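The instructor's notes for this session suggest beginning with a concrete chain rather than abstract definitions. Hand out the sequence below and ask the class to guess, before any prediction is shown, which regions might be ordered.
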Amino acid sequence: MSATDFDPARLQAVLDAHLGAAPVTELTRISGGQSNPTYFVTHGGRRMVLRKQPNGEILKGAHAIDREYRVMQALGPAGVPVPQVVLFHDDASALGTPFYLMERLEGRGFEDCSLPEVEPAERRQIYLGMADALARLHSVDPEAIGLGDYGKPGNYFARQVGRWTKQYRAAQTDDIPEVERLIEWLPRTLPQQDRTSIIHGDYRIDNMIYAPERPAILAIIDWELSTLGDPLADFAYLAMNWAMPHGGRGAQLGGLDLYALGIPTLEEMTQRYCAATGRDSVPDLNWFFAYNLFRLVGIIQGIKKRALDGNASSANAEAATARIVPLAQQAWAFAQQAQH
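After discussion, reveal the predicted structure:
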């Protein structure tokens, strides 16, 4: 049992009440998450994952774990690979904040985009599978699965730019010129929205659980930023992996020999996604890249503010906040390319 930010006896009582009496034999906090504290829990023979809101004050609209639970509960029967949800508990008197439980899947996770653990042929299938799963998500009719009210259907980017500007302002600690330019430029240059779908909001390879022995996605995880919106937001976020240089943390694919690695080109991924979603093409992505990095700046600025307030949920918060200015500069560089 590892240290928790709640009383384990209270969790035991909730689990016994809802799932039947059994001992909690594992309660381990998972490191790495910057946002919602996450734990492995074994109750009797049932292996689960617990996600809860962080303790302390949080920004309005952030850490919406009720939405995570709701979207996974709806998408599973619709054929989108998600973990099976078990229980949502909104009474904060138990663990201090609302939480939910989902089944724990036994599979593989990848953090380095170049996938050094696998052979080139499997790398290709892993990436094409990401395009297929995203297309599957974007093909689900929100109304048909009870998510017609999961977000407002139109003006997605206008609302998101406004939201992340407010989030950034609420957590702002420094004056960053590139962020100020983006706050002025993004609302003036909004793309037209042609489609509305359920979008994940953080669609990347380390939010996938793959089968142990084959390149199949068992589950897409971390739905905290999901909503109704423009599906191009998700696709552009995935496409950024090809536009950004391969970094020390294994993120991004820019500069790598994709052919030698067996990883599809962005053109191949685009064709695969477009064929599955009935698109002829996708627009120039530089605006979307600038927007996605601006949003990431807003998220990390929130982490920085919580760290300064003593509420950050990861020891890596300091390292994350060092990325704010470089990300803002990269976002503005994409914005300048989008103007041409």
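Then share the key points. The CA atoms of residues 143 and 312 lie 36 Å apart. The radius of gyration is 20 Å.
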